[in-house]
Write a structure and sequence with these properties.
The chain has 7 helices and 7 strands. By secondary structure, it is α+β, with helices and mostly antiparallel strands. The chain is rod-shaped, with a radius of gyration of 34 Å.
């Protein structure tokens, strides 16, 4: 795994990308729109936020490992140096900051379900928006916000009719919706593990339960600060946040609370499954020890008999009996059978 860059000793506001180094080129797409018109901007020089007038602009960046390009965008949109530093720091805790009563900075943690590896992956999504523009920064190459882009292009929903604050809400709402998918994945894993634990033969490993605990911790670690971001968003009196967006933000608060409650429930269920798994392991070990104890108990008298007749005394009357060997074998067999019958009646077998 590539080493991450660290910012130790650097001045505040120094733009350093702290994520994993990748080979793909940073991609971007830009839309200039209103309720009637949608223009796709292909040249970076054509992006002119100061000339928007009655239009809005959405600039979407995919890939943060080229700080020079990010700095050019920061200069064009007058992004605060501290916000630029936080954009490139992919280990940020979800938060909301307001700068100079003009622009708002929001960073959230998106969870994506990787179908190939059957695991959850976290990606940082950062929004920087003003009165008539929004810039979204995606950490990875894959287009996480493709659905939002399709809504904008096809005039689905209210994005084209509302301002940049509603576009920011739509993106955060889309991120929160993926938490439901992550929780559905966790629930299916819990159900599967619970079924296997109660089956006669199960192949649950401790690593599988451990991975599940890590994933639910990852969800809880992201959703609680996300709730703070949403609450701060709805309580903000910033002029670019319109009152018409409040009702949607309140619905977003309800979703975040519901996800937090579900994550708590699933965490308790996973802990219960872990305890049940440990109990099953202990029961298996006890069953093995019980079988070994029974076998040892049966062979103790047999070893005693064999020990007596294994002594090298000259005068032993059974040695002269032509059927002595068979009699001793029969006695040993009957002793073993008697012990088995006794253990069966005691329900130890």
């Amino acid at each position: 795994m590539p080493r991450k860059k660290r910012k130790t000793g650097l001045l505040p506001g120094t733009p350093i990308y702290t994520g994993e180094l990748t080979s793909f080129s940073t991609q971007w797409c830009c839309y200039e729109y209103n309720s009637e018109v949608l223009n796709f901007i292909t040249e970076f020089e054509e992006i002119k936020p100061q000339d928007l007038k009655d239009k809005f602009l959405w600039l979407d960046i995919r890939g943060l490992h080229e700080p020079m390009l990010i700095e050019k965008i920061a200069q064009k949109f007058d992004i605060h140096p501290l916000a630029l530093e936080d954009i490139l720091d992919v280990d940020q805790r979800p938060k909301l900051d307001e700068y100079d009563n003009k622009n708002i900075f929001i960073t959230v943690a998106a969870l994506k379900l990787e179908k190939i590896s059957n695991s959850l992956k976290k990606e940082q999504i950062t929004l920087y928006f003003g009165n008539n523009f929004l810039i979204s920064f995606q950490e990875d190459e894959d287009d996480f916000l493709e659905v939002i882009r399709e809504r904008l292009i096809n005039k689905k929903g209210r994005i084209r009719q509302r301002g940049s604050d509603y576009l920011a809400y739509s993106i955060i709402d889309f991120v929160v919706d993926h938490y439901y998918e992550a929780l559905d994945f966790i629930e299916s894993k819990i159900t599967d593990i619970d079924y296997k634990l109660h089956a006669d033969e199960n192949n649950i490993s401790n690593e599988e339960l451990h991975d599940l605990k890590i994933q639910i911790i990852q969800i809880r670690k992201s959703i609680y600060p996300m709730r703070e971001v949403i609450n701060k968003f709805i309580r903000s009196e910033h002029p670019i946040i319109h009152s018409e967006t409040d009702i949607y933000l309140r619905d977003l608060v309800d979703h975040s609370v519901q996800i937090a409650d579900m994550s708590e429930t699933y965490r308790d269920m996973i802990n219960s499954l872990h305890d049940l798994y440990q109990t099953e392991i202990s029961n298996r070990m006890n069953n093995v020890m019980k079988i070994l104890t029974i076998i040892s108990t049966i062979f103790i008298p047999l070893n005693f008999i064999a020990g007596i007749y294994g002594m090298n005394f000259k005068y032993m009357p059974e040695l002269d009996n032509p059927y002595g060997y068979f009699i001793i074998i029969f006695i040993m067999f009957m002793v073993a059978v008697a012990f088995l019958i006794y253990f069966r009646r005691k329900k130890w077998l």
